[in-house]
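Entry 14. Structure prediction run on the chain below.
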Amino acid sequence: MASSGSEARQRPRIGISTYLEKARWGAWDQPAVLLPHAYVDVVHRAGGIAVLLPPQPDGADEALSGLDGLLLAGGADVDPDRYGAVAQEGTDPPRRDRDAWELALLGAALAQDTPVLGVCRGAQVLNVAAGGTLHQHLPDFVGTHRHRPAPGQFARVRVTVAADSRLAGILGSEVDAPCSHHQAIDRLGRGLRTSAVAEDGTVEAVEMPGHGYVLGVQWHPELDVDDLRLIGSLVTAARDRRAGSVHLAEQTR
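Output returned:
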């Protein structure tokens, strides 16, 4: 059995939410659990161990209890019904199983003080969970497609970070962010603060002060393989939480 010291030194386990999609490989064509490999790769590069969390009917509390951090990955649009809106033309068909699973994972993470990083859709899930709303088609509000030139394409967007935010302590005052989102945060959820905006005023990052490590970014840091600062900050927060849990267990023996 591993000692408490070796447990504290183990790489932190980062749970990553995944897609449930129809997929083809070899002779097979059936529903599959999917995740772009970039997420796994960047977590590993940053010093963590990636653990995939596919949508399930229940068990979010149990899943989170064995993990040190949570990364809510990008993907399809959040069901507008979740924030009291009617789906507009161009909004993705609802993925209610994934919405329910990720909201449950997030709720469990907040209750357990597990570090959370939301990426793109993940930032929107964080806002909706806090009672906020979303712009369903961002070009209708900013007048351009600069945040997503076309489905499946990325663009570099200059993002300004709030000087007194946790995010500024990680990334500094500006980010050249790889973006691919046609939705964005509209009304900010309770307990959240805007920590970064694009030049056109689009909210590009949020955080939850007073709640440990809880960040959401509209861009895709997993694509910046040479810049591990953001993913690394999640891994560091998860490592610190793990060490604290081991120390608490030692005290209660």
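The longest helix spans residues 229-251.
Filed with the rest of this week's runs.
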